[in-house]
Amino acid sequence: MNKAELVEAIANETGLSKSKSGEVVNTIVKTISESLAKGEKVSLTGFGTWSTNTRPERKGRNPKTGEEITIASKTVAKFKPGNELTKTVN
After folding, report:
1. Distance from CA of residue 36 to its chain's centroid?
2. pLDDT of res. 1
């Protein structure tokens, strides 16, 4: 399912217009993204939890030349599914 299909499914389920449903989806994504950027955790009980994790700097190799390189540290988003989501999927 892509974003357009999600918007259509929300519109069909709620009776909202597709444009209103699109605004809802965009707002949810924006709010979760902004919270993660602030270092906050976002939890939807039963569905799952989004959080951030910092990957430390590490050594790697350039696959083309074999030269050792340093891979910079960075912050990544992660998602842990909740129990209800896990049960539904299985």
Report:
1. 9
2. 94
